[in-house]
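Researcher: I'd like a structural prediction for the single chain below. Treat it as a standalone chain; there are no partners to consider.
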Amino acid sequence: MHRLRIMNQKRVSRRTGTAYHEAGHAVCAYLVRKKFRYVTIRANGEYEGHMRHYQRREAFLTDGEEKARTRTSMEKDMMVSLAGGAAVFLLTGKHDYIGKWSDDHKVMDLSEYVCRSRRECEAYINWLFIRCESMLRSPANWHAVETLAEELLAKETISYRKAVEIIKAAKRKFRQGRWEDTPAQALSVHGGRRP
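Model: Treating it as a single chain, here is the predicted structure.
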């Protein structure tokens, strides 16, 4: 395992960046309990990697309980979409605009169901990005991202069930204290703003 590499302006290959991006999506999905079919770094002509979700029914906000339940589900979807860019940012200290372009558009579309103005959407998305960054910055969660990224680099495609096994094992290993100490700068708080 490599030491935690957050906020050190590390240069990484495109393939490694893609692996961390997709691992960020998958770890966040696990943490917010959103299932997916698989995660891959195998290019398909449109994307360098992706996480295949289960078919979702259209979500429209209605009144009462359905509105709250739908909003929570949409918020989780938005966080999963933002987590790829957050993982690359935590790894390199830089935003990967190309890799997260489609994620950002999906998040903006979903936020329009919740917010009433573009300004409110941007503030809401920034807050969700900060939540993702904070979630992934946790040393145990980051160890899971790093472990899953390394597995993706080795195997290219990992099923949901196997990804969950990898994430749980990495978090358990971290809690048992068998992972290298986390550098102090990794725990420092960054401004968290998205450009």
